[in-house]
Amino acid sequence: MLEFRDVTFSYGAEPVLRGISFQIPDGEARVILGQSGSGKSTILKLFLGLYPPFSGSVLIDGEDIGKMNERELREVRKKIGMVFQDGALFDSMTVGENVGFYLIEHSDLEIDEIEKRVREMLGYVGLEESIIDKLPDELSGGMQRRVAIGRALLATDPKIMLYDEPTTGLDPESTSKALALMKTLAERKKISSVIVTHQIVDALEIADDFIFIDDGQVVFDGKLDGFRDCADPRVLEFLNPFRRGIAELQRKKFA
Ligand SMILES: Nc1ncnc2c1ncn2[C@@H]1O[C@H](COP(=O)(O)OP(=O)(O)O)[C@@H](O)[C@H]1O
Ligand SMILES: [Mg+2]
Question: Is residue 72 part of a domain?
C-alpha cells in the first residue's frame, strides 16, 4: 500500500503540496492528473524520499519514509522503479549498458549472465535483442522509453513503479505501446503503479482510477465516470479541451 496522509511540502516560501491524502492498494495503478506546476512530480519525489514532507506522512507498506535514515531509505528505494519523462538514458552508453547498468555496478554477476538478463528484458519490453549495442540516439523516442522501463525493471525487480509523464513526446503508436506495457506490468506482475501525466486521453487508456490535483490539493479521487461528471470548476477547466477524446475512448472501452 502506498499512502499520502495529509502531506504538506514546499521548496521555498510558496506551498507546493497543501494537505494531500490518498491511498493506492497493492498491485493497483493510479493516474495522477493535474495541470503543469500543480505538484505531480513533487509527489513522486516524496515517494522516493528525496525530500521529507513538512507535515503529514508518506507511507510505503505502512512505514513512514519521512522517519527513515539513509540506509532504510535505500532499502525502500530498492522496491521502486522510476521512469522519467525523457527516459533519462545515459547517452554515451549502449542500450545493453543502460539496461544492465545497475547489475554491472552493484552485483557480482558475470558479464555473460548480465547480458543474458538484458537480452531477456529487451524481449520482455517488446524490443529486438539486436539493438543491444546501439546508442540511445539511434533509437526512436518510443524505443528509448521502453529501454528506460526495462532498465528500471532489471535494476530493482520493483514492487512499485513511478512514471513521470511517461508518454510525453511520443507518437500515437509508441504511446499506445508504452501504455500497454505499463498496464501489463501493473496487472500481471502486480506492480503498484503511479503514473503522473497531464495528457488525459493517455491516462484513460491505462487506469480506471484517477486522482486529480490542483494547486497542491486533491480535488478528485475516484473512477472515470465520476471524474467526467465532476462539477468542480477546476475539473471542468482541465477536462474541457479533452471532452471529445474522452467520449471516443469511452465508446471504444465499453463497445
Ligand atoms: N526543485 C525545485 N525548487 C523550487 N521549486 C520547485 C522545484 N521543483 C518544482 N518546483 C515548483 O513546485 C511547483 C510544483 O512543481 P511540480 O511538482 O514539478 O509540478 P508538476 O509536475 O505538476 O508540473 C511548481 O510551482 C514548481 O515551479
Ligand atoms: Mg512534472
Answer: no
**CATH number (domain holding residue 210):** 3.40.50.300
Which residue puts its alpha carbon closest to atom 27 of ligand 1? Answer: 37
Domain region containing 20: 1-67+199-255
User: Which residue do the cell numbers 477546476 mark?
Assistant: 234
Q: Nearest C-alpha to atom 5 of ligand 1 is from which residue?
A: 11
* Assigned domain for 24 exists: yes
- 246 assigned to some structural domain: yes
The answer to whether the beta carbons of residues 200 and 246 sit under 8 Å apart is: yes
Does 20 contact ligand 1 (Cβ within 6 A)? Answer: no
**pTM summary value:** 0.86
Task: Note the pLDDT tens digit of each residue in 181-210.
Answer: 888 888 888 889 999 988 877 777 777 889
- Integer Cα distance of 206 and 124 in angstroms: 19
- Residue 38 CA, closest ligand 1 atom number: 22
Residue 57 inside a domain? The answer is yes
Query: Is there a contact between 198 and 31 (Cβ–Cβ < 8 Å)?
Result: no
Q: State the DSSP H helix or E strand holding residue 31, giving kind and residue range, or none if neither.
A: strand 29-33
Cα(34) to ligand 2 centroid in Å equals 9
Please state the length of the chain.
255
Closest CA to 207 of 146, 240, 161: 161
Instruction: State the residue for C-alpha cell 461528471.
Output: 229
- pLDDT (tens digit per residue) in 98-149: 999 888 888 888 999 999 999 988 988 888 899 999 999 999 888 888 898 8
